[in-house]
Amino acid sequence: MIRLMVIGPAGLPWRDIARRPRGAVICDDGVAASMQAWDAALAFAIPDDDGLSFERLLDGRKHVLVPIDIDLPFAQLQALADRAKQVNVRFAVVNPDRYLPSRQLIRHQLDAGKLGEPGLIRIHRWRSAGALLRDLDLVLWYFGKAPNLVYAVSHVGGGNTQIHLGFPGGGMALLDHAAGLPVGAGYYSLSLIGSTGAAYADDHQNMQLAYQGGLPRAVHADEGTLPIAVLVQEFVDAIAAGRDAAEDWRQVFAIRAAIEQSIATRQAVTL
């Protein structure tokens, strides 16, 4: 039985998620002080406890899972992955958005040949904070190849950013990020148009009207705890089987660097 320790954030419903894993148990906060009481860390935030760091976790032979947008540079993530290999533990960097049922469904439709070759991907992400790396990874995951041209423009202050990715053969992706909204509910949509079909994941489809007196409210029905539960199970299975849970995120970070260069120079950047 693999014992998992959670490091942030407080907003995720871990009590519900803890009932789902097979072959693992999520420890309560009372065991956090003793590293001997658990085997792996689900680090959805950078450790900020005194004396606790990713390096110390790996040196203590703890497996570690982190989301791709944990706000660490690629060089540091790569160094941590290399350190993990030296002590024979897993340092897994994941994109949680890959595990959303709606995104999984689009991938299944692509793999089944029902959409043909991807031609256009469009993403709107209007949130109080952006998640650019997650969206770039989704685009690469669906296209199955890297773009060769990047062009991006951003409003002064970076609140609104529009990104164009051009792919060999004529495919393209358009990303529209509005990260300057007030804290609260946002909006997300993803559409993929292929050579023989199209698929969509749109928050509009999951909005329910609630009549509670006064004006009706639109309540968003999210995709629940299943995505995190599946992500955790995949991590647990990799540990139990001794599989390498690492993945090369070099291309995603390279595209983000090209986006930053394009914004700064106001020119398209060739990859």
Features of this protein?
single chain, 271 residues, 7-stranded mixed β-sheet, 14 strands, 27% strand, globular
Describe the structure in your own words.
It is a single chain. This protein is α/β, with parallel strands linked by helices. The protein is 29% helix and 27% strand. The protein has helices at 14-17, 54-59, 74-86, 101-111, 132-143, 226-241, 250-265; strands spanning 2-7, 24-26, 40-43, 63-67, 91-94, 118-126, 149-154, 160-166, 172-178, 187-194, 198-202, 207-210, 217-220, 269-270. The protein has a seven-stranded mixed β-sheet. A five-stranded parallel β-sheet has the order 2-1-3-4-5. The longest helix has 16 residues, at 226-241. It is globular and about 50 Å long.
What is the tally of helical segments?
Answer: 7
Low-confidence stretches: none
Q: What helical percentage do the residues reach?
A: 25-40%
Largest sheet, strands/sense/barrel: 7 strands, mixed
The radius of gyration over CA amounts to 20 Å
β content, as a range?
25-35%
Which class best fits the helix and strand makeup? alpha/beta
Mean pLDDT: 88
N to C succession of SSEs = EHEEHEHEHEHEEEEEEEHHE
Strand order in space, largest sheet = 11-10-6-9-8-7-14
Overall strand count: 14
Please state the overall shape, judged from the principal axes of the Cα atoms. Answer: globular
The end-to-end distance, rounded to whole angstroms, is: 45 Å
